Structures are given as C-alpha cells and as structure tokens.
Amino acid sequence: MRSVTILAEPEWQAARAAHEARVEPWISPRLHRRAHGERHPVDDFLFEYYDFRPARLRRWHPGHGVVLAGDSGDWLDLSGYVTVDGGAGVGDELLLDRGRRLRDTRAVLAATAMRPPAFGCFGLHEWAMVYRQSAAARRHSAVPLRLSPREIDATVESVGLRCTHADAFRFFTADARPRNATTPLTGTRIRDEQPGCLHATMDLYRYAYRLSPLIGSDLIADCFALARQGREIDMRMSPYDLSAWGYQPIRIETPAGRAEFATAQRRLASLGAGLRTRLLTEVDLLCRKETALVNGQSRQPLALDPRGRDSVRRCTVSSDDGHHADHRQDDDERRGRPHHADADAGLPLLQ
C-alpha cells in the first residue's frame, strides 16, 4: 500500500505563490541583463553553467507523491503530470523514466556524504585556469585581473594546487594540471568528490533540478540559494577584480586571506551537508518507490498519509556517476518553445 499527500487548492496555490515570490528577485535581474546585453560575473553563472532556465526555476512543483486537489486541470498540460485521485500529480511513468538518473544521483551524493571534508585547496582553481596564460586566451576577458600574471603564477607555485573537482580541473591550463595533487575526472567523481569542495556544495543545485518535477521546488530553491552563496565566494577568492560589481576580494595570496577563505569554506560546507542530507533522503525515497514499481507493486491503491511516505524496499545503488539523459520535454517545450539538447547532455562544463 503506497501513500500520498493531498493538498487542497488553497494550500497549493499559496505554496506556488510563495515560491514564485521567493525566486523572482533572482530571475528578473537575469532576464533584464540578458535583454540589455549586460553581464554579471556571479549571478549569470547560475543560469549558464547550470542549465535550468529561469522559467523552470520559477515554476513550482510539489514533488512526486503529492496530489493537487481542486481546479488542477492546468497541471495536466505539464510534462510528467497525470490525473491522480481526482486531482493532478507527478505520475509513476516519469519516476520509472528517471530511474537510472535517480540511482546515479544517489550514488554520488551518498559517496560524497561519507567522505571526510578537505579544506586545504584555498580555492585556487580559478587561479589555475589562468596560470601562465596569455591575456588573449583568458576566459573571463571582460573582467579585469586584480593581480599581475607574475603575481598569480607565484601564488599558484607557492601555495600549491589540491583541487578535487573534475569540472574545475578540466579547465586548468596545461601548465597547471601537473601541479595538482590529484587528477579528478568525470569518470572518477564518486572516488574524488568530497563535501569540503565549494563546487561540490554548489552542484547540489544541479542534482536537485535535474530530478524536477520529482523533487519539490522548495528544495531546489534552497539549493539555488546556497549555490549563489558559493559562487560569490568563488569569485571573491579569484584573481579577478569584481569591485565594479560591489564585491571585495578574499586575498588568498596572503595568509590572512587564506584564513578568511577557510572560514567561509567551512561554513558553506556545513550548510551543504544539511542540504545534501535532505536531498539524499528525497532521492533515496524516490529510488525505493521506483524499485517497487519495477517489481510490480505499482498498481496498488493509494492510502492517504500526511507525511507522503511509503513502505517499499531499498533500491540498489549504481556503481557509476554517469549523468544520463532522460529526454523528457520540459514545461517550456510543452508550450511551444524549443528544448535545448545540451540540457540533457550530462554535466555542463564550468564557465
């Protein structure tokens, strides 16, 4: 016997309105900048490196196992929704379709959570991306450096590189790569990812939204908010000058700056640990539901339960981390807007 949570129409309308009000201050400035050809080195990253478009972030979803009662007909126009118990909810077919992604996501989250955090990198990945690099080859050419190339190179050489994140390491310059303590790769993510890493915490947002609408939008928004904090720290500790945008640098080229970064890194990792636990709990529940469906338990009647939980056996964990495409059309596509192939092409690269 499986269970669901039923939300009356006033309840889900209030939840949807609260979500939209929360994310609008993130979305509207992004749309304004894009319309006027403007750039922001912190906030734009969250909509470019992470391939979750503003319209999708704005739309509220309750998550799998919740039935929206009342006048919920419009929800049936959205990808993945079906009629459930006189209302609308995310259907089991979508859960089955995302089964591989659920298991892959769970494997990475669980492995990362079990590993002790490492705090000795001092955020030098952005420095390694411009190490011994010409000005013409620099990726963030529109943002000035706050140090000379010689000072940047000297900092990399004196402090050392200890990056554990594959999507950062792949952008290291050819001269910087051999200086890193390890060689993190996409295929070794489960082995290398650790909870002290700034980008591992930020990437909780990606793991959450790539399971939408199975994962509720409240958790996705929480992950976005933490990723935004991480990106600010990321750019403040970089060799770039962000004073034009109101950001003061964390001068990791100095002992005081490295201590300041370490404090910020530990705080972010602590917040990330809580979010990782929440996300892993939700993914594990979905994984167990998917296993029950595969095992033929999918057509049992639903029993109302305010907690929205069910009793099915634990799923097995995949041994790889591959972020596989599921080719589901999103809400924008259902409304006639094109779906970008890169949204389903796996992990996007660091911008």
Helix-strand layout with pairing:
Blueprint: E1 2-7, H1 9-35, H2 45-48, H3 54-58, E2 66-68, E3 81-84, E4 87-90, H4 92-97, H5 99-114, H6 125-128, H7 149-159, H8 166-169, H9 189-192, H10 198-202, H11 204-209, H12 217-236, H13 255-294, E5 302-304, H14 331-334
Parallel strand pairs: 1-2, 1-5
Antiparallel strand pairs: 3-4
Helix pairs in contact: 5-13, 12-13
Structure explained in plain terms:
- This protein has 351 residues and is mainly alpha-helical.
- Helix content is 44%, strand content 6%.
- The chain is built from 14 helices and five strands.
- Mean pLDDT is 85; it is low at 299-351.
Percent helix, as a range, is 40-55%
Q: Per DSSP, what share of the residues sits in E-state strands of 2 or more residues?
A: 5-15%
Number of strands: 5
- What would you call the structural class? mainly alpha
Order of helices and strands: EHHHEEEHHHHHHHHHHEH
